[in-house]
Each structure stands twice: as C-alpha cells, then as structure tokens.
Amino acid sequence: MRSIWQREIAFFLAVPALVWQVLFLCIPIALVLYTSLHSVTESASWYTLTLAHYQALFTVNHALIIMRSLIFSTLTALLCLTIGYPVAYFIALRVKKWRLILLFLLTLPFWTNFLTQAYAWFFVLERHGLINTVLKMMRIIHEPLLLAHNNFAVLCVMVYCYLPFMILPIYSVLQKVDVHLLEASQDLGATKWQTFTRVTLPLSRIGIQTGLLLVCIPAFGEFVIPMIMGGSRDFYVGSLISHYMLSSGNEHLGAAFTCLSACVLFVVIRLVSWYISSVRNAAVRGK
After folding, report:
1. Which uninterrupted H or E stretch holds 78?
2. In terms of residue numbers, what domain contains 133?
3. In this structure, are residues 228 and 239 in contact, taking their beta carbons and an 8 Å threshold?
4. CA nearest 69: which of 185, 155, 191, 181?
5. Looking at the DSSP assignment, which residues form a beta bridge with residue 49?
6. pTM
7. CA distance 93 to 133
8. Does residue 180 have a pLDDT over 60?
9. Domain holding 139: CATH number?
C-alpha cells in the first residue's frame, strides 16, 4: 500500500507554488484593494471604507492616460506579433541545425537587467547617440534627429523588450505542429498561402493569444520605459501610479487608480476576446 506522499505527490509539489502565489500575489492585491477603499479622515478606523478615491479619478485626464496606455499596449502587442510570428515560424518549421543557437540568442536579453536594456536604447536614440552619430558621419543628416523623448522611442523600446514574450509562446506551439499536415495540404492542391492561413495559422492560435496577453498586460502598466524614453511630457498608467505612490505620497489614490486601470484592462480584454470568438463562430457557421 502506497504512502500518503506517494499518493499525493502532485499536491505536495504544488504547495510551494501555492504559498508563493498567496503571499506575493493574492495578499498584495487584497492590500491594494483595501488601501483604495480605506478612508483617510482623522476619525476613520481600519474598517472605515469609502469610494471617494475612485470618485476623484473620474476625470478627463485620467481617462486620457488610461486610453493612451491602452493604445500603446495594443500597438506594442500588434507590432510584436507582426515581427515575432515570422521569426517563430522560421525557427520552428524552417530551421533544424541552428535552432538551439537561435533560441539561445532569443533568450539572451533575459540575462540582462530590464533597466539596463532601456538605458542602452536611450544611448542609441538620444540626440548624440549611436544612430545620429552614424548618420552624421555618413553625411545623411546635418542636424540630429529627435529620436528620444517622444512616443516613437517609447514604442520602439517596448517592442524590443517584449518581443521575446511573443516569439516564445508561438514557437512552443508551432514546433508541435505535425509537418505532415502541411505536406498533405499542399498535396491536395492548396497553395502555400492557403496552407498557412487554413492550417498553420489556426493551429498556432493558442500561441498567438498567449503572446498577445503576455505582451499587452505588462505593456499596459509599464513605467520604466516611458520614464526613460518618453521624458516627463506624457503620463502613462504605470508612471502615474508610481507618481502617486512614490512622489506625491498619495498611496490611496494610487491604489484606487491601480484597481480602476486593472478593471478597465480586464473589461477590454474580455470584450475583444468575446468579439473574436463571435466572429470565429459566425465564420464556422457560415461554412
């Protein structure tokens, strides 16, 4: 008769991950939610709750900041998909000998601190950076281009930093695709484009969805890259939260804005997911 350890080994192995998730995810989220609802009046006790912090956020400026972050996170995800899908497709289905080396080069940026990567791009795009210096040496330009401290720089660096998060999920799905299905499609008269759109792309749908979520969600709350590359001209969700929490010392308003922006992001993702599912189901019924 097996011991309890042998019978419940899966449970015991999952306990550390469960404890970690409770301590560093569930409890911090609960504290942020409580801070956003806690009253700051002198007579307030620990159980006195209020919605005043949320009411203060219903302004045009806060709505524009959330909209700006949504637009940038969406653009980042779409650009990462446009660039990353061909890379993942090439590594998974077209390369055999050099696959491990290419995957190593793909994961190499993870060995470098995220802040270091952002600062490295600053020295590439700044007024006297690498790009402007090379272009002036080649006499292509006479005055430095304004490549840093603008939205272009923010988007460029965000795409660079989050691109591996798009490539790896798509690659992990594409490498499991049976190549005989692709060969059978072409043997039955389908062109390469028809094989890609009707066989390869649908089979990689899970990887695409995972990559979009892995890029869109952290890009929505990004504050390091906008702070370094965008300057202080425009606020984003992450930079405004850090301003409330660290600079102004208004942690209650910062917690409320964190919860509000998270709810907006969740609703937008659910609406987009519902729309895509409805379109796909309509297309299936149409066939």
Report:
1. helix 60-89
2. 61-277
3. no
4. 155
5. 38
6. 0.88
7. 39
8. yes
9. 1.10.3720.10
